[in-house]
Amino acid sequence: MQSQVNFEELYIQLQRKVSTESHKRLDPLVSGSQAMLLRILDMSGPQKASSIAERMNITPGAVTSLADKLIACGYATRNRDSKDRRVVQLDITDQGKDILRQYKAVVRSTIEQFFAGVSDEDKQHLVRIYHQVLKNIDQQREEH
Q: pLDDT tens for residues 85-122?
């Protein structure tokens, strides 16, 4: 029982510290949700808000709010489809690609700092564990 309590306490403590440190380092660029939206646009090209919402597991209204901020900063554009003017798609700008590159670099260096001193073997164990936890989460989501 004691080891379970320690595990839970460590998990909560780790989550808080990672979240706090990540926000400190990354928020000056863009929020995590904004970066995720930019990443989707960068990888998949122009997308409708409804498609992005589905991939991010948020509402189309939340995507619109994120997009408005990105558009105001010059990181994304909102364009009407040439074939169907009712369809509006979001796209990433060159400036958005630049900020996404910066964001990814900060994420990479942050992860390297967080895991300094952790052996490659232990990192591989973590990768296996993370995959299992993600699988568990997906299974629970499907059941509910």
A: 888 899 999 999 999 999 999 888 988 999 999 999 99
Per-domain boundaries in the chain = 2-114
Q: Which of 53, 92, 54, 50 is nearest to 71 (CA)?
A: 92
Give the tens place of pLDDT for each residue, 42-86: 999 999 999 999 999 999 999 999 999 999 999 999 998 888 888
Report the CATH architecture of 2-114. Answer: Orthogonal Bundle (1.10)
Distance CA 73, CA 56 (A): 21
Burial class (CB in 10 A: 0-12, 13-18, 19+), 75: buried
Q: Both tokens of residue 40?
A: 């989707």
Closest CA to 21 of 95, 107, 79: 107
Q: Collapse the DSSP code of 74 into the 3-class scheme (helix H, G, I; strand E, B; otherwise coil) and give the result.
A: coil
d(CA 6, CA 16): 15
